[in-house]
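DATA SHEET
Item: assembly model
Revision: 1
Owner: S.N.
Input lines:
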Amino acid sequence: ETGVTQTPRHLVMGMTNKKSLKCEQHLGHNAMYWYKQSAKKPLELMFVYSLEERVENNSVPSRFSPECPNSSHLFLHLHTLQPEDSALYLCASSQDRGGGYNEQFFGPGTRLTVL
Amino acid sequence: RKEVEQDPGPFNVPEGATVAFNCTYSNSASQSFFWYRQDCRKEPKLLMSVYSSGNEDGRFTAQLNRASQYISLLIRDSKLSDSATYLCVVTDAYSGAGSYQLTFGKGTKLSVIP
């Protein structure tokens, strides 16, 4: 079983709502990632955190706001979303030792529907 | 724009068949290459890394051709449990502090039929 958990697993929200997605990793990793997976599109990297600092933000709209309070937890705060933001949001973590790729472990995802 | 292209399928094959997936990538500076597997409504999981010399893991063989920017995955003696979407993945950018960006293909769907 994956050592990365995500809550909620399913979320339906209106365009004016504010909600947060939560990710927790139990693997002792020091890097965490948010990805978006839409139908018929490849996974898109949204944010990267390494040692609790954001090291990448792939031109994601400001209605998505990440937060990484410690190396085990990652949040994605959502506000005034659009219907096209409906997708599967996946969290991943890896143990980054520098100098080479380390496997990313994915959580089960949150399936988000924006009405 | 960095892209990873795959045949979306679906590939419908009988049990015991051999099936091959292909993938091309656009960024010649890509460093590392992988195949991930994603079951229906589940998260992606690493299937195997792809090395320049080619590598094999049981019924699965992966090949990399850097000159052609081409990656392949061969599955021999297909099992029902192999039914999934297979994602071609490359690392493109080093984000610093040891973290890498992955670029995913859209995936190739495989259905193994009894």
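QC remark: Chain A has a mean pLDDT of 89.
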